[in-house]
Amino acid sequence: MTDSPAAARKPRPGLGRGLSALLGDSIPEEPIKGNPTSSSGVRMLPTSSLVADPNQPRRHFDEEALDTLAESIRTRGLIQPIFVRPHGQSFQIVAGERRWRAAQRARLHEVPVIVRELSDAETLEIALIENIQRQDLNAIEEAEGYARLIREFGHTQEALGKIVHKSRSHIANLLRLLDLPVPVREMVVDRSLEMGHARALIGAPDPEKLAREVVAKGLSVRDTEKLARTAKPAPKRKASDSRSEGDPDISALERHLGDVLGLNVRIAHGDKGGTLTVGYSTLDQLDMICQRLSGERI
C-alpha cells in the first residue's frame, strides 16, 4: 500500500512554524474582495499597492546588489512571489521587500504576491526566518528582531531558538550586542566591525573608543579580546587568588560558560576555593539564571 501524497509530504527543514505554513506545497486560497486569486494562491497586484513594514528587521539594503537584482528582474521578470498581508487600502510586505524594491527599479507595474492574514507576531517571525535563511540580516538587525519578539510578544529565548533553528546561546550572545553603545552597533551594521569583535567589547570601559582602535588597526578578534581585557580595571584579588590570574584553563572555562549562558562569566580561584560571578543586564537574563539554577524547564 502506497502512502497518499499528503501523508508522504514532510515538513520543509529549517523553517519555523509560521513560515512552514506559509510556504507549504499546497497553498490554500484566501480570496480578498476585489482581488481574484489563482488556483496556486498567487495573484498579481500593482507594485504601488505594496508598502514596506516599518518594523521589518532588515534595515540595510546594498544598493549595488539591488541594481543587479533589478536588472535580472527587468530581463526575466519576478519569479518568486512577495508575501504580504492586508493593511488598510494597501498590502504590507511580510517577506520580499528587497525583491519589491528591485521590482520598482525595474519599473514593473505589477508583481506576483501571496496574501495572508497574519498577526504582528507572525509577521515578525516570518520576516526574521526568511532573512536569516538568506543570511540577509547583520547581527544587530537579527538581535533587534529577537529582542522585539521577547519584549512585545512574550517569546522565550528557547522558543525563539526552535522557531529560527538556532541555539539558545547564539540568541543570547546576539542579544548581548544590544548592550553596546549605538556607535559601536552601527559599526556592526556597516560591517566595519565583525560580531566577534563586538562581543569582545561587551563590558569593556569605553567600548566606542576601543572599537575605533580595532577598526583603525585592523585587529583580529583575539587581539580585540586582549585589548578589552587590558582596558578593564584590574579587580582586587586576594593573595590566594593570584594563581587564577592568567591561567589558560580558567580563561577557557570562563569562555565556555559564557557561551553556554550567553552572559559574562568571571572565575576567581584560589587555594581555598573561589568565586563564580555571572553578570546580567536585564531581568529576563536574571530570570533565566534563576530557572537554570532551580532546574526548571526554560
From TrEMBL:
InterPro entries the record matches: Chromosome_partition/occlusion, HTH_ParB/Spo0J, ParB/RepB/Spo0J, ParB/Sulfiredoxin_sf, ParB_dimer_C, ParB_N
Single GO MF annotation: DNA binding
Cited CDD domains: SPO0J_N (cd16393)
Listed Basic and acidic residues bias regions: 238-250
Any one annotated GO CC term: chromosome
One Pfam family it belongs to: ParB_N
SUPFAM superfamilies per the UniProt record, alphabetical: ParB/Sulfiredoxin
Extent of Polar residues compositional bias: 35-50
Region (Disordered): 1-55, 225-250
Signal peptide start and end residues: none
Domain of life, source organism: Bacteria
Annotated Gene3D superfamilies: 1.10.10.2830, 3.90.1530.30
Record-level GO BP terms: chromosome segregation; positive regulation of sporulation resulting in formation of a cellular spore
Keywords: Chromosome partition, DNA-binding
ParB-like N-terminal domain span: 43-132
Task performed by this protein: Involved in chromosome partition. Localize to both poles of the predivisional cell following completion of DNA replication. Binds to the DNA origin of replication.
Protein family membership: Belongs to the ParB family.
Name of this chain's protein: ParB family chromosome partitioning protein
